[in-house]
Amino acid sequence: MLSPNADLQTRPALDTDEARLLVETGFLALSRGKVGEAEAIFHAVLAARPGEEAGHLGLAQLALLLGDTERALRALSEAPDTAAVLAFRGMALARRGDAAGARSLLARAAADPDVGALARAVLDSL
Fold it and tell me: Which Pfam families match (predicted)?
């Protein structure tokens, strides 16, 4: 017999819609200059769903906005290799001056329907 808390034990801390809402809230906070609040939100998403890209990407974008490419790369170091993660790693490498590394990652992301345009734009600027 399952315990009354069985669903709580097997269900992720945040479901997909909840995580998406939190990430959007983090980006809204970031767009309004509320860096500390955005960072706290992205860390919460990362803690709740560590195997997904959202928290990693949020922290990386925050770091890039602040001009801290090494911090952005650290935020992405344990993220899954999705096209978005590859694109943002490529952007961070480009900002660090590693054009060859950036091109390699951005070329892999360029065909993706969601981030391909961004990856191609950064590639074109290198």
Answer: TPR_19
The domain of 85 spans 81-126
pLDDT bin (cut points 50, 70, 90) of residue 63 is: very high
> Between the CA of residue 111 and those of 29, 34, 60, 69, 86, what are the distances in Å?
30, 33, 21, 24, 12
Token digits for 43? 């860390």
- Regarding whether 62 and 40 lie in a shared domain, the answer is yes
27 shares its domain with 60:
yes
CA distances from 92 to 36, 62, 63, 74, 113 (A): 21, 12, 9, 10, 21
Other Cβ atoms less than 10 A from the Cβ of 13: the count is 12
Q: Is residue 6 part of a domain?
A: no
The letter for the amino acid at 32 is: R
The answer to whether residues 26 and 38 touch, using CB atoms and an 8 Å cutoff, is yes
Q: Can you tell me the distance from the alpha carbon of 94 to that of 24, in angstroms, rounded to the nearest whole number?
A: 26
pLDDT at residue number 15: 84
For the whole model, what pTM was predicted?
0.85
Helix (H) or strand (E) holding 24: helix 16-31
